[in-house]
């Protein structure tokens, strides 16, 4: 222990401040290094226990600060207790927790009379949820919007303004409504009496000339000027006289050139018509007819007695059918089939007259009564139509 520590005239705070000054530390340096508040360090140096919130931590603070200064911790704590009058207590003593706040005895009448009791939630006012900064932002946005709107309106007003600049030459009439008026005649301006030349080239291009008598051109003139006898073959003397007589006949019967024989005048085709192919359904059956390009010509369930005539195409279509025992084919009025015996499904059946006649035989009406009834009805319809015409 350094000499002079037991001198009663020297205060503990003076010793501690002297040691701290020797180390060159301030109160903030001690607070940063010991993690003790600077106010607590000053209270230890002044032996003031009223600055501490909890008395149980005073002994630890005093000993830690004494060891930091290089002093004897136990001697320093005893001297601190003598000068401050501090009585150390253990941690479980009631006084270690410090003085408890004094609570007033509860008075029911006073609690009910209080308009703002602590146990009831307070209602927030409308203005408490409004931020002044938000109001300022809204005002700034409103001012900007008004400024932009006014600026746009002012620009639009300036654009729509029409400024009239006086010219050196007064306006005048430079066009005439009468197309018959001479193109080269100058026009006189009413105010300035200035002769303005007219664009004669444009007038001659866009203005028609007036005609005293209309000119009519026959539309069939070039056709009427064709002589049909120029390209006709040479005729014999005995053929020339009937042709001349025919040409001198009535206008509706007049024929120019040689006449063709009646057998040559008949309409002829290049090749005979292709035989017609029909699909017959003696009983209900599902059929689908597809063209060579993939187009579906027919896809349905044909009823009993229904017919479907195939269109004439360059490539023959193909057939896919269910219940093929009820499907027959009519080629040039003759019935072939069935497509397959029983209720089988047939596919890729070429629907050309050559393929059908080569693949199938004539239909036996005795084996299919429904087909026989269907053919009987089909043969009876033409007879009824002929009798109705007679």
TrEMBL record:
<dbReference type="InterPro" id="IPR025194">
    <property type="entry name" value="RodZ-like_C"/>
</dbReference>
<dbReference type="GO" id="GO:0003677">
    <property type="term" value="F:DNA binding"/>
</dbReference>
<dbReference type="Pfam" id="PF13413">
    <property type="entry name" value="HTH_25"/>
</dbReference>
<feature type="domain" description="Cytoskeleton protein RodZ-like C-terminal">
    <location>
        <begin position="280"/>
        <end position="349"/>
    </location>
</feature>
<protein>
    <submittedName>
        <fullName>Protein RodZ, contains Xre-like HTH and DUF4115 domains</fullName>
    </submittedName>
</protein>
<dbReference type="InterPro" id="IPR050400">
    <property type="entry name" value="Bact_Cytoskel_RodZ"/>
</dbReference>
<feature type="region of interest" description="Disordered">
    <location>
        <begin position="88"/>
        <end position="114"/>
    </location>
</feature>
<dbReference type="InterPro" id="IPR010982">
    <property type="entry name" value="Lambda_DNA-bd_dom_sf"/>
</dbReference>
<dbReference type="Pfam" id="PF13464">
    <property type="entry name" value="RodZ_C"/>
</dbReference>
């Amino acid at each position: 222990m350094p000499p002079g520590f037991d001198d009663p005239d020297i205060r503990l705070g003076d010793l501690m401040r002297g040691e701290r000054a020797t180390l060159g530390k301030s109160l903030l340096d001690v607070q940063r290094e010991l993690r003790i508040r600077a106010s607590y360090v000053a209270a230890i140096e002044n032996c003031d226990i009223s600055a501490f919130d909890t008395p149980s931590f005073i002994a630890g603070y005093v000993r830690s600060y004494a060891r930091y200064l290089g002093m004897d911790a136990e001697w320093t704590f005893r001297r601190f207790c003598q000068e401050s009058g501090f009585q150390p207590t253990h941690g479980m003593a009631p006084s270690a927790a410090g003085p408890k706040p004094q609570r007033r005895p509860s008075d029911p009448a006073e609690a009910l009379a209080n308009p703002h009791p602590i146990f009831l939630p307070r209602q927030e006012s409308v203005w408490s949820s409004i931020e002044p900064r938000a109001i300022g932002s809204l005002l700034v946005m409103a001012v900007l919007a008004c400024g932009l709107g006014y600026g746009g309106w002012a620009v639009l007003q300036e654009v729509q303004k029409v400024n009239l600049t006086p010219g050196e030459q007064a306006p005048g009439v430079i066009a005439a409504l009468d197309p018959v008026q001479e193109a080269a005649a100058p026009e006189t301006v009413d105010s300035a009496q200035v002769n303005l030349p007219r664009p004669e080239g444009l007038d001659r291009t866009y203005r028609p000339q007036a005609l005293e008598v209309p000119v009519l051109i026959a539309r069939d003139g070039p056709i009427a000027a064709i002589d049909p006898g120029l390209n006709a073959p040479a005729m014999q003397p005995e053929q020339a006289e009937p042709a001349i007589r025919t040409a001198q006949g009535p206008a509706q019967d007049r024929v120019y050139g040689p006449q063709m024989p009646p057998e040559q005048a008949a309409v002829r085709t290049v090749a005979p018509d292709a035989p017609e192919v029909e699909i017959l359904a003696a009983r209900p059956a599902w059929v689908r007819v597809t063209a060579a390009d993939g187009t579906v010509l027919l896809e349905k369930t044909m009823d009993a007695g229904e017919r479907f005539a195939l269109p004439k195409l360059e490539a023959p279509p193909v057939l896919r059918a269910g219940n093929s025992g009820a499907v027959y084919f009519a080629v040039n009025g003759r019935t072939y089939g069935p497509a397959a015996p029983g209720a089988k499904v047939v596919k890729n059946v070429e629907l050309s007259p050559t393929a059908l006649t080569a693949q199938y035989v004539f239909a036996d009406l005795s084996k299919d009564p429904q087909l026989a009834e269907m053919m009987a009805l089909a043969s009876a319809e033409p007879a009824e139509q002929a009798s109705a015409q007679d």
